[in-house]
Amino acid sequence: MLNDPVINVKGIGEKLEQGLNSLGIHTVEDLLFYFPARYDVYEIKPLSELVHNDKVTIEGEVISEPSLAFYGKKKSRLSFNLQVEHVTVKAVMFNRSFAKKQLQTGDIVTVTGKWDQHRLQITVSNYKKGRAKSDAKIQPVYALKSDVSNLQIKKAVSTALSQFQDSLQEILPQEYLSAYKLPGRMEAVKQMHFPDNHQVLKHARRRFTYEEFLLFQLKMQLLRKRKRESTYGNSLEYEKQAVDEFVERLPFRLTAAQLRSLQEILTDLHSPYRMNRLLQGDVGSGKTAVAAIALYAAITAAKQGALMVPTEILAEQHFHSLTELFADHASVVLLTGSVKGKRRKQILQEIAEKEADIIIGTHALIQDEVLFQDLGLVIVDEQHRFGVEQRRVLRDKGLHPDVLFMTATPIPRTLAITAFGDMDVSVIDELPSGRKQVETYWVKENMLDRVLQFIQKEVDNGHQAYVICPLIEESDKLDIQNAVELYEQLKEIYAPKTTVGLMHGRLPSDEKEEVMREFAANDIQVLVSTTVVEVGVNVPNASVMVIYDAERFGLSQLHQLRGRVGRGEAQSYCILVADPKGEVGKERMKIMTETANGFQLSEEDLKLRGPGDFFGKKQSGIPEFRVADMVHDYRALETARMDAQQILEAGSLDKDPQFKQLATHVYNDKIVMGETLD
């Protein structure tokens, strides 16, 4: 059986069992699914087809006496010239002094190693005398530690395959194998370990990519369904007509994406289950308007609504805009750390006695003294800025309120569903009409004078500018313009008629708030800042965003910064000051100047950085897959998500005999069987 201990495989003794255990291989199944980390192909290719820095195999004639040099303790370097296709290639081997006696001028040798295209040099890791075999096999290379060798794993897998092959049952129904032209499970496992050729290996990988994604999506969707259905919520009997009239009275028309997201949220509010939804929207896409309508719906159902935001100044801005929007329809109050004394006592009383309908605030909302009388809807803006515990405390205020999280960090929809697997996801993926696109330019440092002149010109026209620096102090390792130093320089350049302000992460929070207030009031015209402005204040008058050392930021972060401007009537500009050395940095700058869509940008960012960096190393919910890659196998992830949805809606796991094996794999998962994710 596949769950037998790995020592039951013939030829595996106690010592090898311990080594395999240290690799996480405890059962026969673990061994069979411990797929190679990579494959070496000792296939001879013409020099013109070799790729710089790739591992390659070449064949040639030794045309120089091997030269041996010793350095350090027991370290050596052996080098010789090979003639390959009438070209001289230098071969270098380290710590193989014995090879000097084995290699003579005129010998034909086959060498494998890292290829340096520029020097026409190969750093040899393997060599053999004689020509390469014409039927070069694809060799599996496993990720190893302890004292287990590649050869031992290959032998153990080979034995396990012949000994336990009858236990490797198919888990995908035939209709999926046929529809996607996937190989059977047994054959695919064999080909993953011992591929006959590139084509069959590709199909085996395709099969396990789909299988992993399908299992993952089934588990996550099942978990989300159970979580939603087991969580008692409030069915909000909101007044549909009043909400429709409120939408009609808005000073702007909602986009199709806003209307779609709003409908999903209203459906959740009305359902008996507790809402746990993520509302994603690009910078300026109108998430706040959708949130305001949802809050209004809660009020018409005689409930209170709360909006929690990361900074005081953002809370103040929401308070002013919502007070204006709701006018005579609702009582809106603001609760932040700055609200003290009698005023604070009065607000707490209004909340407790339900005189306050909508409560806007920072994490002050989650303090023990804040007692809601009838909290029906909680909205958390920029949800990633609050810890899991802070979000949980707010969610537990009141009797099972519906919860809506909002984020302006655009994540491709499928990945959002993967990352936030236990949430429903709504996406606002279009901007309101009439909004001017921010013009983005990439310049080198030699154009700084022109950039500074351009800022002055915009300020003279009554506008304001942000100037962003990556770090706030000098570092020996990173050649970065110091924010404080830049502030001093700009103050000198723009004095006396233009006021320059400084903002960075080390300022006390009350000073930060004060600087942002001054900027919002146009008492400061040019704000030098680190990325603390990435999420926050809305200054419609700011028309220029200059980002120093822009190559040091990811695409999503650059896009967030760019979203700080372009919020008013005037044409706005984003200027990236960067001199990237690598191709990735250059590509990033190019994409920024060509793309304004945050969702497209996030997909490009994902391709450049990979999911680990994209979500942050410790982002819970990003699973480790054996074969599948969430970036490159993006379409397969979407296909598996739709298939999983269909399977669960049809109840096939429980009813259809074809799905019996698949159901066993899904229901055997400990998370699905009882544990929940926060």
Automatic annotation (TrEMBL):
Annotated InterPro entries: ATP-dep_DNA_helicase_RecG, DEAD/DEAH_box_helicase_dom, Helicase_ATP-bd, Helicase_C-like, NA-bd_OB-fold, P-loop_NTPase, RecG/Mfd, RecG_dom3_C
Xref: Pfam families: DEAD, Helicase_C, RecG_dom3_C, RecG_wedge
SMART domains registered for this protein in UniProt: DEXDc, HELICc
Alphabetized CDD domains for the sequence: DEXHc_RecG, RecG_wedge_OBF, SF2_C_RecG
Every Helicase ATP-binding domain range: 268-428
Highest taxon of source: Bacteria
Protein's UniProt keywords contain Hydrolase: yes
Gene Ontology MF term list: DNA helicase activity; hydrolase activity
Catalytic activity: Couples ATP hydrolysis with the unwinding of duplex DNA by translocating in the 3'-5' direction; ATP + H2O = ADP + phosphate + H(+)
SUPFAM superfamilies: Nucleic acid-binding proteins, P-loop containing nucleoside triphosphate hydrolases
Keywords (A to Z) from UniProt: ATP-binding, DNA damage, DNA recombination, DNA repair, DNA-binding, Helicase, Hydrolase, Isomerase, Nucleotide-binding
Sequence ranges assigned to domain Helicase C-terminal in this UniProt record: 447-607
EC number: 5.6.2.4
PANTHER family reported for this sequence: ATP-DEPENDENT DNA HELICASE HOMOLOG RECG, CHLOROPLASTIC
Known role: Plays a critical role in recombination and DNA repair. Helps process Holliday junction intermediates to mature products by catalyzing branch migration. Has replication fork regression activity, unwinds stalled or blocked replication forks to make a HJ that can be resolved. Has a DNA unwinding activity characteristic of a DNA helicase with 3'-5' polarity.
Family indicated by similarity: Belongs to the helicase family. RecG subfamily.
Protein name: ATP-dependent DNA helicase RecG
